[in-house]
């Protein structure tokens, strides 16, 4: 009798003292429906924001390409203090490291006296005829923009799948934790009754010991399920862009009705969110190849310029065939001569053909590689659609059977409890039937959740999340 009382008190103390709450209901707890979670994820998830920034970058690239072919106008002004000695003969200014000197050859000796010179010029240069390069550059930039936009849509689609799946798993683990919490209460009630009966001599002392074992086991199962639920909650909070916050799932009656097999329109795979980016990537590769091929074409430009120059060196030659040099800045900077120029130029580098040919062939092979990847993804999606249909059918059949299992286990538990109270059955049979009932309820929760996840798999395989979202109960 003393042993029975000790077991009862110790078990009650452990369960009562260390019983955690399922998702602490405090002011910081966030309650989300699935659609609210999807909206939050779309707004907050960093990778989606990254894709949005890439679209903005690609948009600016398109504008930059258009602007690069506009007439280029520039102004420059110079004020130099230098000597002006020259010799006959040629030189080549490699990357501008050699400084040119303008003026005639002096017939007298070289002079180290410097003078101020000035230059002001305004020049307009326009690539009037590009032989298709402008259009090719614009098409390449626009195809990259379209690809970036579709990558965003794909990322939203993929992330919504991840969020929905994490939401369903969090919902399932929460339900299982609540179920195990009820199982703790049930086993505790049995322990209370058996301990009282053992203390009064109506039942054997072993009954209270067995009941204590079952109550402790139920407690451990509850703590394990609660830990899993909290970990899944952390995963979900990270996916919706609210890491570290506690989220309480709004079940939205997921377990009150089963989803049905959706009717899928016979839409081609080309519109699938996982295939569209690959198709646009092929377009990018093809447009880039055209862009490379046209780099070998010439460029026809129109140009015009006006400029003025000043110098501290005299225009007229002295009687001794020298030039007067005035080092004053006021003599050298004012313009003394003005000029203008209008004309056209054509530039063509025919030897670039050899480089362009290999780059073009390389880009063509890149396009072929992307096309083969496109075919692979298309085949994988076809297989996924067939597998998703099979998975849904199997999950639906299982979900239809588990309620029958729960009802039978519930009836068996009631009968076993009555037989135990009448002294016909032992505590061992009662605990076994209790475990059977708890497992059947768990199987039911898992089967319904698996059915919803199978529906999600089907929607993902067909590239249409509305197949899933339209069946969410209000």
Automatic annotation (TrEMBL):
Q: Does the keyword Transmembrane apply?
A: yes
Q: Could you tell me where this protein is found in the cell?
A: Cell outer membrane
InterPro entries attached to this UniProt entry:
OMP_efflux, TolC-like
Annotated GO molecular function terms are: efflux transmembrane transporter activity; porin activity
Alphabetical GO CC annotations of the entry are: cell outer membrane; efflux pump complex
Annotated family: Belongs to the outer membrane factor (OMF) (TC 1.B.17) family.
- Any idea what this protein is called? TolC family protein
Q: Which organism is it from?
A: Dyadobacter luteus
């Amino acid at each position: 009798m003393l042993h029975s009382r000790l077991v009862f008190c110790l078990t009650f103390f452990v369960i009562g003292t260390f019983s955690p709450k399922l998702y602490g209901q405090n002011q910081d707890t966030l309650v989300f429906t699935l659609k609210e979670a999807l909206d939050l994820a779309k707004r907050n998830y960093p990778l989606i924001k990254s894709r949005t920034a890439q679209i903005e970058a690609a948009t600016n690239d398109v504008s930059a390409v258009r602007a690069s072919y506009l007439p280029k106008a520039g102004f420059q002004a110079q004020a130099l203090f230098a000597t002006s000695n020259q010799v006959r003969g040629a030189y080549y200014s490699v990357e501008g490291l050699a400084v040119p000197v303008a003026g005639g050859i002096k017939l007298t000796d070289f002079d180290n006296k410097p003078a101020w010179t000035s230059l002001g010029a305004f020049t307009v240069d326009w690539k009037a005829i590009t032989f298709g390069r402008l259009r090719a550059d614009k098409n390449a930039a626009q195809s990259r923009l379209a690809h970036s936009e579709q990558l965003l849509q794909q990322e939203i689609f993929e992330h919504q799948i991840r969020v929905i799946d994490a939401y369903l798993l969090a919902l399932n683990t929460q339900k299982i934790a609540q179920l195990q919490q009820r199982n703790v209460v049930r086993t505790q009630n049995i322990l209370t009754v058996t301990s009282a009966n053992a203390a009064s001599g109506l039942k054997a002392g072993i009954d209270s010991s067995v009941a204590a074992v079952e109550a402790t086991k139920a407690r451990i199962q509850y703590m394990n399920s609660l830990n899993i639920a909290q970990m899944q909650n952390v995963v979900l909070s990270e996916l919706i862009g609210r890491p570290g916050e506690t989220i309480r799932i709004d079940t939205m009656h997921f377990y009150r009705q089963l989803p049905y097999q959706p009717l899928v329109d016979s839409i081609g795979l080309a519109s699938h969110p996982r295939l569209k980016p690959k198709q646009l990537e092929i377009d990018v590769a093809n447009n880039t190849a055209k862009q490379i091929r046209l780099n070998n074409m010439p460029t026809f430009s129109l140009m015009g310029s006006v400029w003025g120059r000043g110098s501290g060196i005299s225009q007229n030659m002295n009687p001794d065939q020298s030039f007067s040099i005035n080092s004053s800045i006021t003599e050298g900077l004012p313009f003394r001569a003005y000029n203008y120029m209008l004309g056209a130029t054509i530039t063509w580098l025919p030897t670039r053909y050899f480089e362009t040919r290999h780059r073009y062939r390389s880009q063509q092979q890149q396009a072929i590689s992307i096309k083969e990847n496109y075919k692979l993804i298309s085949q994988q999606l076809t297989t996924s659609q067939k597998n998703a249909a099979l998975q849904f059918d199997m999950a639906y059949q299982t979900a239809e059977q588990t309620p029958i299992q729960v009802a039978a286990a519930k009836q068996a538990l009631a009968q076993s409890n009555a037989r135990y109270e009448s002294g016909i059955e032992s505590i061992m049979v009662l605990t076994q039937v209790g475990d059977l009932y708890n497992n059947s309820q768990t199987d039911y929760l898992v089967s319904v959740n698996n059915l919803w996840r199978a529906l999600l798999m089907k929607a993902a395989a067909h590239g249409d999340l509305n197949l899933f979202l339209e069946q969410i109960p209000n």
